[in-house]
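so my prof wants the structure for this chain in the tokens format not the other one, which i didnt know existed until like an hour ago. anyway here's the sequence
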Amino acid sequence: MTFNEYLTNLRGKRVAVAGAGISNTPLIEALLASGADVKVRDKRTRTELGEAAGRFEGRGARLLLGEGYLDKLDEEIIFRTPGLMPSHPALQAAIANGALLTSEMEVFFDVCPCRIIGVTGSDGKTTTASIIAEMLKNANVTAHIGGNIGEPLLCRADMFSPDDIAVLELSSFQLITMKKSPDIAVVTNLSPNHLDIHANMEEYIAAKQNIYKRQDASGMAIFNYDNGFTRSFAAEAPGRPVLFSRREKLNDGVYFDGGTIYSAACGRSEAVLEAGEILLPGLHIIENYMAAIAAVQGFAGRGAILGTAGSFRGVPHRIELVREHGGVKYYNDSIASSPSRTIAGLNSFENKVILIAGGKDKGVAFDQLGEEIVKHVKRLILTGLTAAKIKEAVISAAGYNGEPEIIMYEDFSDAVRAAAGAAAGGDVVLLSPACTSFDRFRNFEERGDLFREIISSLE
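here's what i got, hopefully its the right format
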């Protein structure tokens, strides 16, 4: 079924789009053009929605905005935004009354005419998906990157060729209701995350597992051998499991040994990539490349892999080198909204760094982060709602003897300027918050942009 055929089947039907964000905006416009009876439901006010409100109404949509945006949810088909959990009482009541709950991403899986490579994990999924797409492009394969990053792909799906490949970063919020899995599934790692939204860790894990559990025998699922959760998934994968490891030499899979990434099959290993050929720093980047190398088997050769390693400069807000000023390097890792992601960032640098951290709590413990901060941080600048919690975790960590020095600032900008003021030639200043940005910012991009703006203005 094509997307156009899907839209034709919705003509005249009552459709709700719950959440008019980036991924759903093109969908709303396509639904309106198809002749569906569309109600846009969004918890933002008309002022917050901006010019989109008038544009939707001008094309025939009805709007229900603000706190009661899910009241009287009686449409036949409901598209939920990823951040709206399917367990919401209003959605459950609508389903009980016969409504079909779906999402932009679920429909994309139904209508996409080409292979899909899906990437998920607690950390590293954006970078891994981006590396995969770059490797494919360097191998002259037409790759479309989307999902939780890039432009929404659904409304463009009918223009894809069967020989193309769609590369999707998929969050737990997208996966939780998925009824299909990608042809190739990648799980970078798994650790406690988003526990302020998921009911518990079990729900979070189950959502992630949807990326491979609905494959058939023709599918391939790539797992991190070094992570206890993901290693255990390999035994239950219905498709072909492929493991990658930074710590163990594998007879089958992709592994890192002596500064080289190898691909192994039936006990025979072939060198694929040297660590020194990768432009980006950090052991976690090695893991991203191993996962990507496993995913592009049969599509991209060593030349495309090497070309990517030497040119790929990373993704904005992910250990992004903003500037070197006065001998100090400033890195923007605003995407690091979990302790595990910040720990990976800290381990990217040989020497101790000046760390800016803090934000909104996700219900995840900071104990391990505290221990890693003691090992890798020379001065800790804290801000945001979690500042006191992170400080307590550091003070309570084994080996803490008053170092690093901990300074707390109410204002984010003041925290950034203080970090810059404390830095001397040879230092690294790293924004890696270990928390979401929602205490003060709309998203991690806005937080990272402000960091970049402040650092770029230093004289």
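also thought this was worth mentioning. The chain is about 35% helix and 20% strand.
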